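Example record used in the benchmark description.
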Amino acid sequence: MLVRKRQMSGGGASLRGLSRTLLFALICSAALLAEGRNATAFELFGIKLWGSSSDEDADIVDPLRYAVTIDAPDADKDLVKKLENASTLKNDEELPVSGSLGLLAKARSDREQLVAALYADARYEGVVTITIEGKPLDELPPDAEFSGPQPIPVVIGIATGPKFTLGNIRLKGDAAGLASADFGLIAGGDAGSGAVLKAEASIVRALKAEGRPLAKVTGQEIVADHATSTLDVTLTVAAGPVAGYGDTTVEGTEKVDRDFTEYMTGLKRGRQYSPDEIDEARDRLLGLEVFNSVTLKEADSLNGDGNIPIGVQVSERKPRYFGVGGTFSNTEGLGLEGYWGHRNLFGRAEKLRIDGAISGIGSNSLTELNYNAGIMFEKPGVVGPASKFFANVKTVLEHPDAYDHFSVKGSTGLSYELDKKQTVSAEVALDYSKIRDAFGKHTYLIASIPLQYVYDNRDSRLNPTRGFRVLAYAEPSYDILNGAAFLKLKGEGSAYQSLDTASKFVLAERVAIGSIVGAGLQDVPADRRFYSGGGGSVRGYAYQGIGPKDIDGQPIGGLSFFETSVEMRIAITDTIGVVPFVDAGTVSTKSFPDFADMKVGAGVGLRYITPFGPLRIDAALPLNRGPDDPRFGIYAGIGQAF
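Model output (C-alpha cells):
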C-alpha cells in the first residue's frame, strides 16, 4: 500500500514563510520604485499608492483647478446619480483644466450633456444653469479670466421639472401596420428620449428582419405638451425593397488575408439579407481574436442586381502576446503560469500558443511540485466559417494527494458553431501515462474520442449577469495496454439571474454531475476518476479532499460525482463586490452519486472588477468537517468561481 505525505491543511510553516518572502519582496520593490522616481505617482487598479497631483498638472498648459457643486433640489437620489454621471465637470473634478478657456469650454459642453440626461429621464421642462465664480455662464465673455483663489467655484443648478409620459403615438409610412406597443411606445408609458430612440431602432430592425436592408426612419415629429406633461410621437418609416447580399469588401487588413476575412463573414452573394447574420458575421470576425474592432455597414443603395453591398472595416491587433498569472489557496498553495502566443501565424488567423505552469508552491515539498506544459494550434474556417480545427500536445507531472502522475497527451479535433449560442466538438486523443496511486504503479495508453456540446446564452463570459450555460460531455475510452474500456459522462449547467435593473444583485447557480461506466475503479486511471473539493468546486475543503479515501486518509477518486453551488453577487460599487456562497459536493466509488454523503462549505468572497475579468478572493468554512479536512480555505484567482 502506498503511503504518501499529506498536504498541510491549514497552511504550514513553509507556506507562511513563502508568504512573508513574497510580501517582503513586494515592499522592497515598491520602496525601490519610490526611491528611484520620487516625483512619480503610482497607481494599482486605479488606486493611487503614492505621488501627488502636481504630476498630473505637469502635462497641462496653465492648469486651473475648480470645485463643483450640483444643486438639484427636485431630483430624487437616482436622478441625482444620473446627473452626476452625465457631468464631466463633476467626474473630472480632481483633474485641472487648461486655463480659463478650458473651464468655459467644459462648462458649455457639460450643460448640453446635463440637458440630454434630463431628456433621457423624460424631463422636457428641465433647466440647467451654470455659474462660475458666481457669474452665469451665458453672461461671461468668451475671453473671461478666472483669477480668484483656486479651486474656482462652479455651481450647477438644475430645475428638473415634471416627468413626462407618452401621449399620442402614430406610426406612418411602411410602419403603419405595426403595433407601437410592440416596440415600447404605449400611451402613458416611458417618454424618455432613450426609450423613443430605442423604439425607432427596434422598428427599423423589425423591417430589416424581413430582408429590407434600406429600411429607415424618414420622418420624426415629437411634440411636448407642457400643459399635460405628455409627449406625442409620430414616426414615418420607409421599408425599402427586399434584397440579397451583394459584394463584401474588406478594408483595414494588413497582415490578415483580405479574402479570408471576407470568407469568414459567411455572407453569400444573393442570399436574402438578414440583420442577425450581419451581427453574427461581426461576432465571428471578432472571435478570430486578430482584430481590435470590426464594423459591418450596408451600402446606401442597392447595386445593379438589386442586392446590397456590405462594407467591412477592421483594425488589426498585434499578432504576438504573452502573459503571466497565478492562483493562491491556503490548502492548495501558490500556482504560477506563463504563456506566449501568436494570433495570426500564417495570415489566416491561425493561433499558436505555448504555455507552462507550476503549482503546489508552499503546499508540496520541492520534489513534489506540479508542472504542466503544452502547445496548441488552432485554424478557423476549415469546413466553413463556423468551423475550427485544433491540435495540441500536453505533458503533465503532478503530485496531488491522490496519486503521482506523469503523462504526455496529444489530441486533434474539430469544433463547429451550430449558431451563435450552440457549439459542438469532437476530437481524437492518445494519452500515455504513468501513475502511482493507492492501487500501485500502472502504465496506460488511452485512446479516446471526447465529444462535447455547449449551449451558452450568457450576456458576458467574464462576468455574466443573466442567461445560462449548459455543457454535455461524453468520452469513450480504451486502454490499449491493459484492455479496459469505459465511458466517461459529464453534465454541467450554470444560470445567472439579475434581481434588479442595475444588476447590482445577481443570483448565480451551478450544478454538475458525472459518471464512469464500463469498468471498475481500479481499471480507470487515477487522473480520469472524479474528485471534488477546493477552489474550483467545493470551497472550504482541500483540493480533491472530498470522497472515498484509502487507509492512510488519501483520496482515491470515484466513478461518479455531484456538485452544486449558489452565489449572491452583490455590487457595492462599480468595481467592488462581495459574494456570499454555499457549495456542496460528493464523490462515490459507484457509477451513481451517493447524495447521502454530501460535503457542504460556505463562505464569502471579495471581487474587484477589471477589464480582463474579476479578481477573486474567497474564504470558506467546511460545514460538516471531517477529521482530515482543513478548518478553513482561502482562494485567490482571476475570474468568477463559475
